[in-house]
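Same chain as my last thread, 430 residues:
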Amino acid sequence: MSTGGNMIFIGKTKFSVFSPVSGAWKATNGSRFKTRAEYKAYLFSDTRLEPRITIFTKYSLPQLELASKGHDVALLVSYSEFLPEKYENQLISAAAKYPFLILEKQELGKPHISLESIAKDKLQTSNDPLQPFGIFRLDDDDILPADYFEQNTPYIKNEFIGMQISHGIGISAIYKDGTFFNARRTYHPMLNIGYTSVHRFDATGNMSQLPIAGHNIADRSYPIIMDSRKIGYLWTRHAAQDTALGLVEVDENSLISSLKRHMDRHPAINDMEEVYRAFPVLVNQITNASTPESTREEMITKPLELEGPGLRLKPKPVGGSVRITAATTCDMKSEIRNSLISFIFVNHAGLRIDPTSLDEHFKNQPISRSGNSKIGWFRYMSSKPGLNRTVVNFTLPEGVYLAVANIVKWRKHDTKIVVTSLSIESTPSI
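reply #2:
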């Protein structure tokens, strides 16, 4: 239930509106398509529309329904007269299922329903026609958390009229074939997803002005309320979205690989339960692993300093392709090769495998076998002073599994080294 009363929120989503003269997007600014026909073919292609209609109707709208409990919410969805019939029918079916959905079929991209008129209608039937309300933005392939309007409710007040609300903390994940993967925690102040402006009508029936500045520079024109205490959005990435048009890759797998590289600057999610609470409809549909087929295990829950024998980690035995990602902080005395990570491999019965038996298999892989029998197979970790990130990739033969990973100091044992995170991800061999 709402803690601040039955607040009014009006949203706007553009579902493939044909606007060939717009310069706002790579799809329309002439950098990718040279003619209207090329742009139109792209805009209404199955490749572009299939993931969008699925994300919008299967995930985004059910989430919005959850978020709307205790509030009076409307979402205006504008779409083009050229939208293929099968997608228009899916929007019509969604509008029949979700009463808060208002469809606007535009001719030549010209709107005929305004957010102001929707707000006016709602206020006229409310207990207080002069109460403030929120206007929010939502792209057709992004998702808002189940408590989104609850997060905004404290700011839908008269003293905040003319301001915008931004939630900087969110989730970014790649969508493909019904699965969200490579989930990362992002911080993007003034991101467009769910951006909400606070309004009211005065006694003469005039609505406070809608912001006209771009969302990424909005704070230069009017005050922004920043609230990043909770997850505020899910930014979906996929090969068919406008932002992917600026990449040089053309096939889907290459585009997704490029998206991963762009997303790698953000940390992976280490608490998927937090994500499930924010996005209940994505339970069993979203993973922090780098591929839908992979599994990922976070091995530590808090920073741990390396002491004495080091850090011994025992994951669930994993085989196939293995990716280990570790983050460490080293003091100013640290030097190259000041720490290493070693591995113990076992067979299907859980018995340790003789390290020398894997010499041929690992011959061209980025791990080495130490002459020190206490070390076995290992990889030096990045250990320069300050923050470090080490990624180790290797593939195991059939019937061989990683059972233990040990992190130890090497050489200068008086150095302070703290392991801040470590994950082990595995993908089964095909």
